[in-house]
Amino acid sequence: MILTEKPSNIYTSSLRGNKRLSVLVLALLSFIVLSFFTFSKSPLSLRGPSCGRTIRTLSEAVALSSSTTSRNHQNGGQAKFINLNDLEATANAKHEQEHVLILTPLKNAEVYLARYFELIDRLSYPKHLITVAFLVSDTTDQTVSILKQKADEFLNRQELEHRYHEIAIYEKDFNFQLPEDKRHTFELQPLRRSFMARSRNYLLTAALREYHSWVLWLDVDVVDYSESILEDLQSVDVDVVVPNCLLKTEDGSFWGYDKNNWQETDRSIEMQKSLDPDYVLLEGYYEFLTNRYLMVDMPTHLGKLEKVPLDGVGATFTLVKAQVHREGANFPPYVFQHQVETEGFAKMAKAMGFGVYGLPGYIIHHIKNS
């Protein structure tokens, strides 16, 4: 009996020892694997038919695994994983293949569309990286039908490199009508600009996609700008940047158009201290002088890319890093620091810590339409 029990005890003891050793080895291996995924500075690249991006953490790998697994369920939903950490807007945007979203609100704009599309199509920025989106409001002319025709042309060209990434046409009526000869009347500006702000916000929230690095706000009636303007403005590498928009004249004389690009001065800041908080300040009107320094009055001979800080901007041609909008800077239809719409956007962006700049020497032209 003793001889038969003894070997059994030895075997049992050895088995228990092996189990303990196995558990310790497995625990050690698990710790090493987890440490590699979690703390490794070098990203783990997973490439395959269903994966064309870089996984940087274990949690991302798990998320991707869950997303990939869901694709295999015929009747199930599909998770969409988008890593916004790698989305950037850089000074070398063209080389980095960064997408640009061009946004243009419209109302009865049929007479301007031919030149608008002609200028966009001249841009040297790659067409496949450009999305164009419109919001048409309270329109009675053929704006929508012309847009559809142009979109079909631009999206279905034979040469792939000449096709645009996307063209979107949205329609939203605000039931706001203003006679053409009254659209710049001083007393009506706060109300008019408030509706314009709402239009811009609708367009922005409808059209902005996760892959857009830049947003360009472009007036439909800008009639002259350089083919390289996107690359030029991107090279300045600031959050918000505007060129100097002048009025197109037959004799080429210098007349400022976009007076919403400006700097505050000591006098303008002091004056605002006594204003009612809901009072909207407007530029270019003799009814109320703001004492601000307009960019159209700044020297233009210091170089095309010489930048100056601004406190207000218009939107004839305003290039914005998409991050600025994503983090919450939009176009207030309400009074924000005595401004609404585009100038309110500039004030909001600066309050959030973003940089707003203008290029006095970089000239573009706007048609005289009122």
From TrEMBL:
- Tree of life domain: Eukaryota
Which GO molecular function terms does the record list?
Answer: alpha-1,6-mannosyltransferase activity
TM regions (residue ranges): 21-39
Q: Which GO terms describe its cellular component?
A: mannan polymerase complex
Gene Ontology biological process terms in this record: cell wall mannoprotein biosynthetic process; protein N-linked glycosylation
**Entry's InterPro entries?**
Mannan_Polymerase_Subunit (IPR052086), Nucleotide-diphossugar_trans (IPR029044)
Report keywords, A-Z: Membrane, Transmembrane, Transmembrane helix
Q: Which family does it belong to?
A: Belongs to the ANP1/MMN9/VAN1 family.
Q: What is this protein called?
A: Uncharacterized protein
